[in-house]
């Protein structure tokens, strides 16, 4: 993996230095600290837990049609897993909604440029059901449990 740096910092991204096939673990994640709450560089690692990832993980950009998904590993950090073939030199992307139930610290307008861009960076909570199905198992395991919890709260008792 190699970091692409832009002069103003807004074009930073992570590029593959070798090709990957669908299902390959592209990058192993590791945590460098627990946080007491969410911030713009935090990763949600549980329903009410946030942490900081080390390495290049925090530099992977959001896309509404990403080439990577995420998988929780034994260190409670997220690995990036290829959702489709990635060529050497290709930029790694994932959907922030794969880890965050809500997005609190990003601009509302999404500039990912994907054909199927949602127009704004939303959390899992606001992801269309078809996208949730599309992402399959390559999302944080707590998100579907949080869906059930909020559905239970929202359902009126007859
Ligand atoms: Zn987008």
Descriptive notes:
The structure is a single chain. This protein has a single domain, classed as SET domain (Beta-clip-like), CATH 2.170.270. It is an alpha+beta fold. The strands form four sheets. The protein has a three-stranded antiparallel sheet with strand order 3-9-8, with no helix packed on it. A three-stranded antiparallel sheet has the order 4-6-5, with no helix packed on it. The protein contains two helices and ten strands. Strand 5 and strand 6 form a beta hairpin. It is globular. The chain binds zinc ion. Zinc ion binds next to loops. The site of zinc ion has 6 residues, from loops.
Features:
158 residues; alpha+beta; Beta-clip-like; three-stranded antiparallel sheet; 10 strands; binds zinc ion
CATH homology-level superfamily: SET domain
Whole-number total of structural domains: 1
Q: Count the E strands.
A: 10
The strand line-up of the biggest sheet is: 3-9-8
The major β-sheet equals:
3 strands, antiparallel
What is the string of SSEs from the N terminus onward? EEEEEEEEEEHH
Shape, please?
Answer: globular
Hey, roughly how much beta strand do the residues contain? 15-25%
Which ligands, by name, code or SMILES, are bound? zinc ion
Mean pLDDT score: 89
Q: What is the CATH topology classification name?
A: Beta-clip-like
What's the total helix number? 2
Low-confidence residue ranges: none
| CATH class identity | Mainly Beta
Structural class: alpha+beta
Helix content: 10-25%
């Amino acid at each position: 993996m190699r970091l692409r740096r832009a002069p103003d910092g807004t074009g930073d991204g992570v590029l593959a230095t070798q090709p990957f096939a669908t299902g390959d673990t592209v990058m192993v994640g590791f945590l460098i600290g627990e946080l007491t709450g969410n911030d713009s560089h935090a990763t949600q690692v549980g329903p009410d837990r946030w942490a900081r990832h080390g390495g290049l993980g925090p530099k992977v950009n959001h896309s509404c049609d990403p080439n990577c998904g995420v998988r929780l590993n034994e260190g409670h950090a997220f690995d990036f897993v290829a959702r489709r073939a990635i060529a050497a030199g290709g930029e790694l992307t994932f959907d922030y909604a794969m880890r965050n139930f809500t997005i609190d610290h990003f601009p509302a307008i999404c500039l990912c440029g994907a054909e199927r861009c949602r127009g704004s960076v939303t959390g899992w909570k606001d992801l269309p059901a078809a996208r949730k199905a599309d992402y399959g198992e390559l999302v944080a395991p707590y998100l579907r449990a949080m869906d059930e919890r909020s559905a239970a709260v929202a359902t009126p008792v007859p």
